[in-house]
């Protein structure tokens, strides 16, 4: 097989920091090549070099066998390299069609011909099974559909080599299977796919070869078929990792959250929650399994005060919590790990220390009579940085935006777990995190449960739901359509329920 | 190299660079107008540093600009663009003027009364725009600009009311009572020869420190900054974002209003009928940008602008139009605005140098 992309001995330094230290990568035509590494290992840097966003400090790049200096993303696109970023690069008030066509719009004379672009997009999306509504605005569609738009955008530009950065992070199990099919049909066309992921299962499912990077250094390139998941994981983190979550059996206690007949409408005024009922008790983790867009986001928004419901009732430990404000929700004992950590979880320009007191800055010891106590704020931050292993260690005064995704998530978890409320809501808490960080997040969710708190877990990762939940509630069409006890959970059965099927009696 | 990059990424460096470039562009324009730029700049410097009296005048000019600068800087820190400082400044000075003329009281009561009135007027002016924004979703930039004009015509209307208007000749109000003035003691005025020497600059410095403290050290500042940086995350954390915007816009307006009172009580002593907007509020935007929205830096940026304004008024001595100063300030803002471009150019050069 010919090589599509070859990167030789790539070194990239930022000041004194070496992000890539002599990395080699050879991607053959028509193969799926996975790049595996923890957050901050240097995967994104390497791909940004390939995509022309960074210049390597040293090293050579060959595209289709020819040595090339890429330099700019435009050049990379011209060379047939397309990238789907982990954080979407879409313009929220524009429609799907406008976003995809942006920069290569079809024109009729001087006038935009979006109809033509729209046709092409519909065709592409049919061909690869990427369902999108070409006329919806990005700000109105789910994270999952935004991801599909990003993939379409790259295909629209005729990429020969696709870089997918954590492409499955927001997809449901079914969608992941579909994506794997898409990837396979792409490679059948002779296209190459570079897959950046932490998910070993997906690497096993669709990659041909895998390059492992650790702390900016090249570790190995292996044949996926002959390497086991645990071997891959061990190479990635440099130690053995446990996949399953240790959890002893517990009897759930009193009901903390009680939701009855909750009805709500979405942004289009369509019914999104239809008489939804749900209980969460002390000492249990309740997992909400469901395909994106079935009302789980709205449910969480209502509970945390970001959205108003139409009717129904919500109580926390017997107290009315229907249509509360975010502040009331917090004061009544709900804390949450939000789905979008950069939009809702953190004030990115604030320091880590400031983010850690975002709800508590008005309380002692962080402030008194309206004056902040910086000493206490900083020592609080340093305590949590130590306890939750937030890196870098001296990040108390650094802006949250300078941290890696995994460490940003640790900041949120440190804050929410320290709030120690009766109900912890976690929405896709491990999205985009690596194995080590996932282990960490899961440990803290189980710890909250063991401390006799109620935990509501909403996740698109079926594995996560099955590993952690004591009880799984399946949401479909704005209703809870099935309940499965954690130990009895079966992926096939859950998948069926999530797709609207009925539980076999 | 890291030290060099530290300089290359600091705001102060680019501000200084922009100021230098502003003067270079100003020199080019002067040359085009057949005026020797060196001669003009010499005159400008002489007009600023020539005598201690001149320097005092620069500070007199600086005081109201520091206030409007603080007003805009405060709004920037809290996620709002207060382009309405102009109108808040006008209603502030107008309120102080009415109180200064109509009320008779000893200075110890009269002066604070004028300031409180001015702060309230400016604050309310800003808060109305804030209410329109959070209740009705009206874009604040639009309503700020409209409120500038409402203030403008309101001022002209009140200036012409019989009780306020000067008894004989001139399109201006009566002089405010001496008990409402904040002039420096006679001995200082005589010693320096600056007839309008007043406490305005000292008050401005005190307020700059207060604003710095509020923004950085208080829970109120924490809340406002959180909303300014990310209103979604702030809302999620339980902060009432609407209330925060309203507070920020009222506070920002109050600062501009006090600036108007300082100008009136320290320098002019009365309000003349406007023929066009005076521009204190807009100049405040320049001050805030030069200061990178840092309240303490606003003091220095305000002095700089004040000195340029005062020194610029002497340019006519070399037949150069004083508007050259406005051009220089405009160019400086232009360069500050594109300084992120310089930054990336310099920093990427720095990186290449390291290869």
TrEMBL record, chain A:
It is a peripheral membrane protein. Signal peptide: none annotated. It comes from the Bacteria. One of its GO terms (cellular component) is plasma membrane. It is found in: Cell membrane. One of its GO terms (molecular function) is ATP binding. It holds the Pfam family ABC_tran. Keywords: ATP-binding, Cell membrane, Membrane, Nucleotide-binding, Repeat, Translocase, Transport. InterPro entries: AAA+_ATPase, ABC_carbohydrate_import_ATPase, ABC_transporter-like_ATP-bd, ABC_transporter-like_CS, P-loop_NTPase. Residues 5-240, 257-502 form the ABC transporter domain. This is ABC transporter ATP-binding protein. It comes from Lachnoanaerobaculum orale.
UniProtKB/TrEMBL annotation, chain B:
It is a multi-pass membrane protein. GO terms for cellular component: plasma membrane. The keyword Transmembrane helix applies. Pfam families: BPD_transp_2. It is found in: Cell membrane. The chain crosses the membrane at residues 12-33, 54-74, 80-103, 110-132, 144-164, 196-215, 245-264, 285-307, 327-346. GO terms for molecular function: transmembrane transporter activity. Keywords: Cell membrane, Membrane, Transmembrane, Transmembrane helix. InterPro entries: ABC_transp_permease. PANTHER family: ABC TRANSPORTER, PERMEASE PROTEIN (PTHR47089), GUANOSINE ABC TRANSPORTER PERMEASE PROTEIN NUPP (PTHR47089:SF1). This is ABC transporter permease. It comes from Lachnoanaerobaculum orale.
């Amino acid at each position: 097989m010919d090589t599509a992309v070859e990167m030789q001995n790539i070194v990239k330094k930022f000041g004194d920091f070496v992000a890539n230290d002599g990395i080699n990568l050879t991607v053959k035509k028509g193969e799926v090549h996975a790049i595996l590494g923890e957050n901050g290992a240097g995967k994104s840097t390497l791909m940004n070099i390939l995509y022309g966003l960074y210049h390597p400090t040293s090293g050579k790049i060959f595209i289709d066998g020819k040595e090339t200096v890429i330099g700019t993303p435009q050049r990379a696109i011209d060379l047939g390299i397309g990238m789907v970023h982990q954080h979407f690069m879409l313009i929220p008030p524009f429609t799907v069609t406008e976003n995809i066509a942006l920069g290569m719009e079809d024109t009729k004379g001087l006038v935009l011909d979006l109809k033509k672009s729209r046709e092409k997009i519909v065709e592409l999306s049919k061909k690869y099974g990427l369902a999108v509504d070409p006329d919806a605005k990005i700000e109105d569609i789910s994270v999952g559909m935004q991801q599909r738009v990003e993939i379409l955008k790259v295909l629209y530009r005729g990429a020969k080599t696709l870089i997918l950065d954590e492409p499955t992070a927001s997809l449901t199990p079914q969608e992941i299977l579909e994506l794997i099919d898409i990837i396979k049909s792409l490679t059948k066309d002779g296209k190459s796919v570079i897959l950046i992921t932490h998910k070993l299962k997906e690497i096993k499912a669709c990659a041909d070869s895998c390059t492992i990077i650790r702390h900016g250094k090249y570790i190995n390139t292996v044949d996926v078929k002959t390497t086991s998941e645990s071997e891959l994981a061990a190479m990635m983190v440099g130690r053995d990792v446990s996949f399953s979550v240790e959890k002893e059996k517990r009897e759930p206690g009193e009901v903390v959250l009680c939701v009855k007949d909750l009805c709500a409408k979405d942004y289009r005024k369509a019914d999104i929650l239809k008489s939804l009922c749900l209980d969460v008790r002390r000492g249990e983790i309740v997992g909400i399994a469901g395909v994106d867009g079935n009302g789980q986001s709205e449910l969480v928004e209502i509970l945390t005060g970001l959205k108003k419901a139409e009717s129904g009732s919500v109580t926390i430990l017997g107290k009315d919590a229907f249509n509360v404000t975010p502040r009331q929700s917090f004061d009544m004992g709900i804390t949450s790990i939000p789905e979008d950590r950069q939009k809702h979880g953190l004030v990115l320009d604030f320091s880590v220390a400031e983010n850690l007191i975002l709800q508590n800055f008005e309380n002692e010891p962080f402030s008194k009579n309206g004056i902040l106590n910086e000493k206490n704020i900083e020592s609080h931050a340093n305590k949590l940085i130590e306890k939750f292993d937030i890196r870098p260690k001296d990040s108390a005064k650094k802006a949250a935006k300078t941290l890696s995704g995994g460490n940003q998530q640790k900041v949120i978890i440190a804050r929410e777990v320290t709030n120690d409320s009766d109900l912890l809501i976690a929405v896709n808490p491990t999205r985009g995190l690596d194995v080590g960080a996932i282990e960490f997040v899961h440990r803290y969710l189980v710890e909250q449960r063991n401390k006799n708190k109620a935990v509501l877990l909403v996740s698109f990762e079926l594995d996560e739901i099955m590993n952690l939940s004591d009880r799984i509630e399946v949401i479909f069409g704005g209703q809870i359509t099935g309940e499965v006890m954690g130990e009895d959970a079966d992926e096939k059965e859950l998948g069926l329920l999530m797709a609207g099927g009925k539980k076999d009696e | 190299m890291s030290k060099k990059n530290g300089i290359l990424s600091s705001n102060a460096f680019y501000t200084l660079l922009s100021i230098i470039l502003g003067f270079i562009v100003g020199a080019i324009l002067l040359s085009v107008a057949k005026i020797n730029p060196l001669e003009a700049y010499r005159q400008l410097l002489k007009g600023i540093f020539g005598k201690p009296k001149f320097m005092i005048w620069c500070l007199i000019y600086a005081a109201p600009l520091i206030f409007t600068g603080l007003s805009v800087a405060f709004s920037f820190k809290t996620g709002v663009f207060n382009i309405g400082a102009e109108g808040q400044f006008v209603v502030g000075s107008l309120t102080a003027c009415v109180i200064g003329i109509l009320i008779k009281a000893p200075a110890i009561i009269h002066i604070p009364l004028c300031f409180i009135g001015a702060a309230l007027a400016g604050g309310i002016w800003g808060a109305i725009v804030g209410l329109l924004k959070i209740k009705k979703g009206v874009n604040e930039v639009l309503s700020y600009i409209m409120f500038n004009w409402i203030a403008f015509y309101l001022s002209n209307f009140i200036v012409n009311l019989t009780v306020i208007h000067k008894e004989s000749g001139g399109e201006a109000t009566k002089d405010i009572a001496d008990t409402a003035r904040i002039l420096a003691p006679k001995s200082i005025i005589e010693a320096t020869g600056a007839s309008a020497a007043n406490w305005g600059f000292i008050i401005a410095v005190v307020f700059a420190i207060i604003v710095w403290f509020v923004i950085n050290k208080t829970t109120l500042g924490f809340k406002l900054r959180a909303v300014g940086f990310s209103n979604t995350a702030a809302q999620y954390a339980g902060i009432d974002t609407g209330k925060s915007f309203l507070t920020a816009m009222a506070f920002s307006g109050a600062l501009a209003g006090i600036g108007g009172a300082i100008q009136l009580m320290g320098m002019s002593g009365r309000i003349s009928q406007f023929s066009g907007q005076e521009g204190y509020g807009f100049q405040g935007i320049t001050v805030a940008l030069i200061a990178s929205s840092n309240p303490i830096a606003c003091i220095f940026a305000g002095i700089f602008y004040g000195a340029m304004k005062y020194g610029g008024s002497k340019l006519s001595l070399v037949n150069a139009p004083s508007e050259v100063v406005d051009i220089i300030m405009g160019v400086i803002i232009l360069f500050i605005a594109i300084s992120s471009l310089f930054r990336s150019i310099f920093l990427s050069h720095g990186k290449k140098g390291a290869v």
